[in-house]
Design brief:
This protein is mostly helical. It has one domain. It is built from 4 helices and no strands. The longest helix is centred in the N-terminal third of the chain and has 39 residues.
Length: 155
C-alpha cells in the first residue's frame, strides 16, 4: 500500500502541475485575444451571450449552463485527489509501523518520488526568455474545376 500510495501521490502532483500550467497558458491566450480583438474582429470575446432565464428549477440549477471555469474545476479535483493520496500515504505509513518496518526499498521509492516531485515543480517551468522561431510558409492555391459547373438549385 505504501508503494502504491507513493506512486499515485506523485501522479496526482503531476496532474495538479499540468492543470496549473494549462490555466496559465489559457489565461495568457485569453489576455491576448482580449487585447487584440477590437482591432480585428470586434468585441467577440468580450461579448457574452446566454439563455433567457429558465422557470424550471431543475433546468436552472442542475442541467442548464452555468459560468463555471473548467480549468478551476480541474484544479480543484486534482487538489482533492492529491489530498486523498496524501491521507492514504500517511495511513499506510502509520499502519505499517506495527506490522513491518520501512525497508530500504521504501526509502529508494520515496527518494525517487521526492526527486521527481521537486523536478516537476521546478524543472518544468516555461521558458519566458528570448527565443527564435523557425517558420515554414506553405503556398496554397485553389484550382478551379474545369470539367462541369455545379448544378443550379434554383436559388
Amino acid at each position: 500500500m505504501r508503494m502504491l500510495s507513493t506512486e499515485w501521490w506523485d501522479r496526482a502532483i503531476a496532474w495538479y502541475l499540468v492543470n496549473r500550467g494549462s490555466k496559465y497558458w489559457q489565461e495568457n491566450w485569453e489576455n491576448h485575444v482580449d487585447m487584440l480583438e477590437n482591432d480585428h474582429v470586434g468585441p467577440l470575446y468580450k461579448t457574452i451571450l446566454h439563455r433567457p432565464e429558465q422557470g424550471n428549477i431543475f433546468e436552472k440549477h442542475i442541467l442548464g449552463p452555468q459560468a463555471i471555469s473548467v480549468s478551476k474545476v480541474n484544479l480543484i479535483v486534482s487538489i482533492f485527489t492529491l489530498c486523498i493520496w496524501v491521507v492514504l500515504l500517511v495511513h499506510s505509513l502509520l499502519a505499517g509501523q506495527h506490522k513491518s518496518p520501512l525497508g530500504w526499498r521504501h526509502f529508494i521509492v520515496g527518494g525517487i518520488t521526492l526527486f521527481f516531485i521537486v523536478f516537476a515543480r521546478f524543472g518544468a517551468k516555461t521558458h519566458l526568455g528570448s527565443h527564435e522561431h523557425v517558420v515554414t510558409k506553405r503556398k496554397t492555391t485553389i484550382i478551379e474545376n474545369q470539367t462541369k459547373a455545379a448544378p443550379d438549385d434554383g436559388l
